[in-house]
Amino acid sequence: MKLSILGARVIDPASGLDQVTDLHLNAGKIIAIGAAPAGFGAVESIDAKGLVAAPGLVDLNVALREPGYSRKGNINSETQAAAAGGVTSLCCPPNTKPVLDTSAVTELILDRAREAGNCKVFPIGALSKGLDGEQLAELIALRDAGCVAFSNGLDNFRSTRTLCRALEYAATFDLTVIFHSQDRDLAEGGLAHEGAVASFLGLPGIPETAETVALARDLLLVEQSGVRAHFSQLTSARGVALIAQAQARGLPVTADVALYQLILTDEALIDFSSLYHVQPPLRTKADRDGLRAAVKSGVVSAISSHHQPHERDAKLAPFGATEPGISSVELLLPLAMTLVEDGLLDLPTLLARLSAGPAEALRLPAGKLAVGSPADLVLFDLGSSTVAGEHWLSKGENCPFIGHSLPATVRYTFMDGRISYQA
Amino acid sequence: MTPLDAKRPLQLNAQGQLQHFLSLDGLPRELLTEILDTADSFLEVGGRAVKKVPLLRGKTICNVFFENSTRTRTTFELAAQRLSADVITLNVSTSSASKGETLLDTLRNLEAMAADMFVVRHGDSGAAHFIAEHVCPNVAIINGGDGRHAHPTQGMLDMLTIRRHKGSFENLSVAIVGDILHSRVARSNMLALKALGCPDIRVIAPKTLLPIGIEQYGVTVYTDMATGLKDVDVVIMLRLQRERMAGGLLPSEGEFYRLFGLTTARLAGAKPDAIVMHPGPINRGVEIESAVADGPQSVILNQVTYGIAVRMAVLSMAMSGQTAQRQFEQEQAQ
Amino acid sequence: MSLPNPAELISQMAIRLKAHLEHRAISEPRFIGIRTGGVWVAQALLEEMGSDSPLGTLDVSFYRDDFSQNGLHPQVRPSALPFEIEGQHLVLIDDVLMSGRTIRAALNELFDYGRPASVTLVCLLDLDAGELPISPDVVGATLSLSAQQRVKLSGPTPLELELQDLAL
């Protein structure tokens, strides 16, 4: 289908493009930016004056909950939610049931995602079988089935030596390993950042060193093994400082943060609201400032939702008995725009961290607006606000931002030139 | 972006009266004083031939204990009985929880039995808040201890003990000794002492038993008994759980006693009329020497007596606040 | 409507109470005032009678029958009875008798201390609005008020009565 998007402010962080112009799409690809090709004859056109057109967002961590946790979400519901948040490509973590450690599970996810047709899904395979941290998963079989990277999530390897071997094996085949660096022993039993708020509430703490000790170790192992590494879900200022140091000495590591970590701090816990129960935990204002600075400077090149939808009951218990996580992928763009509204980032930088940055970190074929590339894009309106939760697509309503007015509205999301979401 | 759910303190009604009793955080000094004054009146009732008043006749109070307790449970039972309420006690740790019933379902079942008030003890910090907010908004919730967070009736009975022996809080030095980190009693005591105007609150413990950020309570930290106890008016000893020896918090009970045990010799460094308190049950020879626990300066058994009066005060005030709130809401609706 | 002077009422009440106690052959009465106004009236009455008997004070907050409607009185204080109740002749003193419910609460409370030999009820004013079969043995004056009117006693010295109109 031929489609022209007319008069939008087109921002492509990958190429530095930022101007009011037209986009012309055909057969799922962008075929021209600016003047239409001779004899294009668009079947349809969208008057996009006043809207921003940007690459479809790339979210490095969206738990789809399928297979295994259909009460929390499924591939159709959560990719629909993602499209509403402006996302066209997403990675799903391996903590499904069964664990994403076989090509069968990988194929099942990819099939369901294709059927749903809301988003491009790039699975992250388990680094160890059953995420048990003991035996390597069949990484090459998983890669061939479609896994783009490998991770053990927050589940530590039992032995550092086994982890080291896993990294060396992955390095042999130029596979990317994603770390969620948190030391199991230091974090054991913890529910909140170890600091004044947790002490006051009597919640067992997770010290900052749970992140930094693991991170320092992981960075050294990455350096030794030469594996391609991405560090996900950083929470502390000292943590991102370790990444910055590693990058400065030439280690090609990338990193992402959860969007909610750039907005919330541990002070949100003061009423014991389980909506703010996340792992790794919300930390202090100083940590949030450190994360924001690292996002601005590019040390952290990706902002992800770390979307974790839950059924109601999972959050209906005393704080410590609830499951961690926030459902927020469908607010990704409008919620991230609060960072621009608050003057923390300019719009092109924010869009870079939401598209080109994450795509490059995991070498995904996504995240840019270029002639010949897939027509994955989002059209949004900066002049209109979104009341979070007015329409809710995710099966998980565990979102503390519901009810807030957010400073942008997604009008259209296109995936391969097709409308995957329309407000 | 600030959380949207910042709101009027959960435990106060629209008139600022207690409608739940969850923690001492945010309660004004006047309200704490009112609790102590009311408890004084109930203490007098305890000395009569008939130790019972008809105040809560026809009301049903459920003690729901998800954690074992003898002292707290029995004093809550006695308090409710002396107010003429009907009382039932459930030890959930041994019944439904092991059958997989959730906290939510357990309490909703009890609510359906037309209970007017729950006294809840639970191992998770924030459990009482959760119940007051999400489970039974029209039932008064009394926190009988939640995780490490709060034990507000113990806090208030400790305050009543101090006030009855020392008169007021204005010129007192109070030392709290032992496992502060895991202690909901310590947290409630620190908040209460601060709110009631105690100028010198000390905590004495090794670093492994002190929570990070303890300065926020307005206390001075000591790691040595001799300096920490010097000239104090009140010594509050905390219970040390056996399991603290595992995980490297302490080498042994013996070493803890050697450094932080309250002995006659150490107590001599406090004021001559200093009182010694302990929430019980005491570990003789671990936190405290028997000669001190049974000695003339010990008020440990008085604490138990005062505990009943304080709990009667809190139960009747919270029931009263629920009544007032319902009336207020009805008037608003009209 | 003019209200009587409490001082004059007290002196008349003292005479009547003495007569009442003589008639009943009560030689050692125990005086109890109901907080707060009743305590003031009792103090004035004891002074008028030249008695140095100890005065007990009763706070009936824990015995009121309107807890479910009105909740707990915020300034409840301990009752203080510096004598035995068991087998004694009690003189219970209150300021204004209206529905009779306070007296019922006071009687209930007294019986939790023991079984008195008798209870004599003394009131400064009887508003003739009883809802229970309770009437004073000795009364200063009986008034009839309209539904909106209330009488308030202030004290302890001097004792003064004031008419309040709820409609205002």
TrEMBL record, chain A:
<dbReference type="InterPro" id="IPR024403">
    <property type="entry name" value="DHOase_cat"/>
</dbReference>
<keyword id="KW-0665">Pyrimidine biosynthesis</keyword>
<protein>
    <submittedName>
        <fullName>Dihydroorotase</fullName>
        <ecNumber>3.5.2.3</ecNumber>
    </submittedName>
</protein>
<dbReference type="GO" id="GO:0005737">
    <property type="term" value="C:cytoplasm"/>
</dbReference>
<dbReference type="GO" id="GO:0006221">
    <property type="term" value="P:pyrimidine nucleotide biosynthetic process"/>
</dbReference>
<dbReference type="InterPro" id="IPR004722">
    <property type="entry name" value="DHOase"/>
</dbReference>
<dbReference type="GO" id="GO:0006145">
    <property type="term" value="P:purine nucleobase catabolic process"/>
</dbReference>
<dbReference type="GO" id="GO:0004151">
    <property type="term" value="F:dihydroorotase activity"/>
</dbReference>
<dbReference type="InterPro" id="IPR050138">
    <property type="entry name" value="DHOase/Allantoinase_Hydrolase"/>
</dbReference>
<dbReference type="Pfam" id="PF12890">
    <property type="entry name" value="DHOase"/>
</dbReference>
<keyword id="KW-0378">Hydrolase</keyword>
<dbReference type="InterPro" id="IPR011059">
    <property type="entry name" value="Metal-dep_hydrolase_composite"/>
</dbReference>
<dbReference type="GO" id="GO:0046872">
    <property type="term" value="F:metal ion binding"/>
</dbReference>
<dbReference type="InterPro" id="IPR032466">
    <property type="entry name" value="Metal_Hydrolase"/>
</dbReference>
<feature type="domain" description="Dihydroorotase catalytic">
    <location>
        <begin position="52"/>
        <end position="236"/>
    </location>
</feature>
Automatic annotation (TrEMBL), chain B:
<feature type="domain" description="Aspartate/ornithine carbamoyltransferase carbamoyl-P binding">
    <location>
        <begin position="19"/>
        <end position="163"/>
    </location>
</feature>
<comment type="pathway">
    <text>Pyrimidine metabolism; UMP biosynthesis via de novo pathway; (S)-dihydroorotate from bicarbonate: step 2/3.</text>
</comment>
<dbReference type="InterPro" id="IPR006132">
    <property type="entry name" value="Asp/Orn_carbamoyltranf_P-bd"/>
</dbReference>
<dbReference type="GO" id="GO:0016597">
    <property type="term" value="F:amino acid binding"/>
</dbReference>
<dbReference type="GO" id="GO:0006520">
    <property type="term" value="P:amino acid metabolic process"/>
</dbReference>
<comment type="function">
    <text>Catalyzes the condensation of carbamoyl phosphate and aspartate to form carbamoyl aspartate and inorganic phosphate, the committed step in the de novo pyrimidine nucleotide biosynthesis pathway.</text>
</comment>
<dbReference type="Pfam" id="PF02729">
    <property type="entry name" value="OTCace_N"/>
</dbReference>
<dbReference type="InterPro" id="IPR006131">
    <property type="entry name" value="Asp_carbamoyltransf_Asp/Orn-bd"/>
</dbReference>
<keyword id="KW-0808">Transferase</keyword>
<dbReference type="InterPro" id="IPR036901">
    <property type="entry name" value="Asp/Orn_carbamoylTrfase_sf"/>
</dbReference>
<feature type="domain" description="Aspartate/ornithine carbamoyltransferase Asp/Orn-binding">
    <location>
        <begin position="171"/>
        <end position="317"/>
    </location>
</feature>
<dbReference type="InterPro" id="IPR002082">
    <property type="entry name" value="Asp_carbamoyltransf"/>
</dbReference>
<comment type="similarity">
    <text>Belongs to the aspartate/ornithine carbamoyltransferase superfamily. ATCase family.</text>
</comment>
<dbReference type="InterPro" id="IPR006130">
    <property type="entry name" value="Asp/Orn_carbamoylTrfase"/>
</dbReference>
<feature type="binding site">
    <location>
        <position position="280"/>
    </location>
    <ligand>
        <name>carbamoyl phosphate</name>
    </ligand>
</feature>
Automatic annotation (TrEMBL), chain C:
<dbReference type="InterPro" id="IPR029057">
    <property type="entry name" value="PRTase-like"/>
</dbReference>
<keyword id="KW-0328">Glycosyltransferase</keyword>
<dbReference type="InterPro" id="IPR050137">
    <property type="entry name" value="PyrR_bifunctional"/>
</dbReference>
<dbReference type="Pfam" id="PF00156">
    <property type="entry name" value="Pribosyltran"/>
</dbReference>
<dbReference type="InterPro" id="IPR000836">
    <property type="entry name" value="PRTase_dom"/>
</dbReference>
<feature type="domain" description="Phosphoribosyltransferase">
    <location>
        <begin position="24"/>
        <end position="139"/>
    </location>
</feature>
<keyword id="KW-0808">Transferase</keyword>
<protein>
    <submittedName>
        <fullName>Uracil phosphoribosyltransferase</fullName>
    </submittedName>
</protein>
<dbReference type="GO" id="GO:0016757">
    <property type="term" value="F:glycosyltransferase activity"/>
</dbReference>
